[in-house]
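U., I forgot to send this yesterday:
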Amino acid sequence: MDYSIAITTLKHSDPILARLIEIIGDCKLYQVQQTGDLLFSLSRSILYQQISGKAAGSIHSKFLQLYPHSPFPTALDILNTPDEVLRGAGISRPKVLYLKDLAQKVLDGLPTLDQLQAMEDESIIEALTPIKGVGRWTVQMLLMFRLHRLDVLPVDDLGIRAGIRRVYSLAELPNKKTVEDLGQMWKPYRSIACWYLWQSLEIKNN
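Result:
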């Protein structure tokens, strides 16, 4: 994936972000792009919500191991799995409910990833947020990491807000409006800017 035009545009529009880009180097957003169908992507997102990445990875692995005869369970597989079995994989009661609601909605006719690709970002958010446990942030992660949309700005993401506070030397975490206002400079490549802001949190202070 060639991000050179996006990088050049961002550097010209935001000198502070330009310095961060120089420190971090090449954008590797493509290296963290996900695979799998919509059920796989959203179920993974649900399991990763509000817990550490390490814990979520362990739970996700145990979840997949419940279905040894296929790379990933179908919607029917999930619906036919007793709640207690899912709980035994470390999945919380609310997330068991979310997974089954997702599976039922897939059977009822959620759009496929190919169909979503033809839709605008906001239309995708409207189509998927009726699923229990799937909010705007969850769909925005799908947009960025599965559908490869380049102009997504998740204003509720704590990492983005922490990155902005650090990079722009703010006294406290920015509110949504501050994030939105800053993001105007980064259009139409806000996903790329977000990747750099996430990376900024890995830089050690001198």
